[in-house]
């Protein structure tokens, strides 16, 4: 089994037209340690201006999060994360996922309501409400003789082929149906559309937030979506295969190029930085990511 060691750096900066005060934010930025998948060797986060209060907690999906409060007026907010992470390659597993018609029986046999239970990833979630257009699109990939895993791969490939990666076409608040009609967008849009398509077929699917390797291996093209945090899809393919991860933005399985930060039902569960503040006028945000494999 191969393992790749990475040094990560992330900068998220915000500037406000008028000084902000009374700001409270929650961050989910640090990569996870996952058994037989990846290990967080070391990591740190710095915040400027320095918070007046700071606390740490673990959310429902078992992700470490940090809450911080800024009382004094400030015109900028600067967040920097650095981490070293080891990512292990995953063995190629045979497809033992059930046919689509047999998947509901396997789901009903799962009694657990733990964070990784497929039951949490079947219905609507805060940002994802079923849309007939996307359901019709999904049915074209759901041939009766295909397994759940084969359907997931078919949808991943079709979305990658039909959609154009265009960072200027959408914003963080663009809805999946808007992105679907445009057939353009970024990794968040590709991921949300694929999740909705899978759920419309009764296949549990969720959102993965993380980082993507920015330096391609020799002879390989640079992967799209590597300038900022990345997103891809997690699919439950039956009790035997369990959860698998596919990246529709690049039409590849998640591998050693993909570093996991958080799992959720949709983007709302894994927002890197979210909060409220007292201010007026507009704000500007910048984000820079560097993912460097070590020799």
Q: What is the H-and-E element order?
A: EEEEEHHHEHEHEEHEEEEE
Structural class of the helix and strand makeup?
Answer: alpha+beta
**Separation of termini?**
17 Å
Give the low-pLDDT segments: none
What is the number of strand segments? Answer: 14
Indicate the overall shape. globular
What is the strand content? 35-45%
Kindly report the average pLDDT value: 93
Protein name: Transglutaminase family protein
Pfam families: Bact_transglu_N, Transglut_core
Organism: Rhizobium aouanii
Describe the model.
The chain is built from six helices and 14 strands. By secondary structure, the chain is of the alpha+beta class. The mean pLDDT is 93. Strands 1, 2, 3, 4, 5, 13 and 14 form a seven-stranded antiparallel beta sheet that branches. A five-stranded antiparallel beta sheet has the order 11-10-9-8-12. Helix 2 packs across helix 5 and helix 4 (176-182) packs across helix 5. It has helices at 103-108, 132-139, 148-162, 176-182, 187-200, 238-241, and strands at residues 3-27, 38-48, 53-58, 64-70, 74-88, 164-165, 184-185, 205-212, 230-236, 243-247, 252-253, 258-264, 273-278, 283-293. The longest helix has 15 residues, at 148-162. A hairpin with a 5-residue loop joins strand 3 and strand 4 (64-70). Residues 179-250 form the Transglutaminase-like domain. This is Transglutaminase family protein. It holds the Pfam family Transglut_core. InterPro entries: Bac_transglu_N (IPR013589), Papain-like_cys_pep_sf (IPR038765), Transglutaminase-like (IPR002931).
């Amino acid at each position: 089994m191969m393992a790749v060691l990475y040094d990560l750096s992330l900068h998220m900066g915000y500037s406000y037209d008028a000084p902000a005060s009374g700001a409270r934010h929650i961050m989910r930025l640090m990569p996870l340690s996952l058994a037989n998948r990846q290990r967080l060797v070391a990591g740190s986060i710095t915040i400027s201006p320095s918070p007046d209060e700071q606390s740490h907690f673990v959310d429902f999906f078992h992700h470490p999060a940090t809450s911080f409060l800024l009382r004094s007026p400030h015109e900028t907010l600067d967040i920097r994360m650095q981490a070293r992470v080891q990512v292990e390659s995953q063995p190629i597993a045979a497809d033992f996922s059930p046919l689509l018609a047999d998947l509901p029986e396997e789901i009903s046999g799962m009694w657990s309501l733990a964070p990784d239970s497929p039951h949490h990833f079947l219905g609507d979630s805060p940002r994802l409400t079923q849309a007939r257009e996307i359901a019709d699109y999904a049915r074209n990939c759901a041939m009766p003789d295909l397994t759940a895993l084969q359907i997931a791969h078919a949808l991943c490939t079709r979305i990658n082929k039909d959609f154009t990666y265009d960072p200027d076409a959408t914003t963080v608040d663009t809805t999946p149906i808007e992105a679907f009609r445009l057939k353009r967008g970024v990794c968040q849009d590709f991921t949300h559309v694929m999740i909705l398509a899978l759920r419309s077929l009764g296949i549990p699917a969720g959102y993965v937030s993380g980082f993507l390797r920015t330096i391609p291996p020799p002879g390989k093209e640079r992967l799209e979506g590597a300038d900022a945090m990345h997103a891809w899809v997690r699919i439950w393919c039956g009790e035997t295969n369990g959860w698998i991860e596919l990246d529709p933005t690049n039409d590849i399985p998640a591998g050693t190029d993909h570093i996991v930060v958080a799992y959720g039902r949709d983007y709302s569960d894994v927002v890197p930085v979210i909060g409220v503040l007292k201010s007026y006028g507009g704000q500007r945000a910048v984000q820079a990511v560097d993912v460097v494999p070590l020799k």
